[in-house]
Amino acid sequence: MSELRIKKVWVDDAFCDSQGRGMMLDVVFANGSGIHLLLDSKADEPLFCDVALNKCGAPITDGERIYWQNGATLTICEMLEMVQVQTKPKSDLRQEDSLS
């Protein structure tokens, strides 16, 4: 993962509701690829609740993490894990639930 670096990040809250659901994080990596990450799975965490309600300003990056003024942070690994869960077919998720 060390060769993957974050180049640019911004928040798209155009479809965000009053509870912070629907906020997207757009991330561009130095290799030219990018992801659109829905932050709904983090909306119940105290630091991300403030992020989702737009109380923390714009996110910044050091190339390895994304930070907000209140201390909320996401690593590249965390973002990729979130993308995997968000893109997993619902039938796979139901099957996992029945196994646990």
Structure described in brief:
The chain is α+β, with helices and mostly antiparallel strands. The protein has helices at 46-52, 76-87, 90-99; strands spanning 6-12, 24-29, 34-38, 60-61, 65-67, 73-75.
Give the arrangement of secondary structure elements:
Elements: E1 6-12, E2 24-29, E3 34-38, H1 46-52, E4 60-61, E5 65-67, E6 73-75, H2 76-87, H3 90-99
Antiparallel strand pairs: 1-2, 2-3, 4-5, 5-6
Walk me through this protein's architecture.
The chain is of the alpha+beta class and 100 residues long. The chain has 3 helices and 6 strands; from the N terminus they run E-E-E-H-E-E-E-H-H. The chain has helices at residues 46-52, 76-87, 90-99; strands at residues 6-12, 24-29, 34-38, 60-61, 65-67, 73-75. 18% of the residues are buried. The mean pLDDT is 82.
User: Based on DSSP secondary structure assignment, what is the total number of beta strands?
Assistant: 6
Q: Note poorly predicted spans.
A: none
What's the story with the biggest beta sheet? Answer: 3 strands, antiparallel
- What is the global morphology? globular
What is the percentage of strand-forming residues?
25-35%
Helix fraction, binned, reads 25-40%
Radius of gyration: 14 Å
Keyword list:
globular; single chain; three-stranded antiparallel beta sheet; 100 residues; alpha+beta
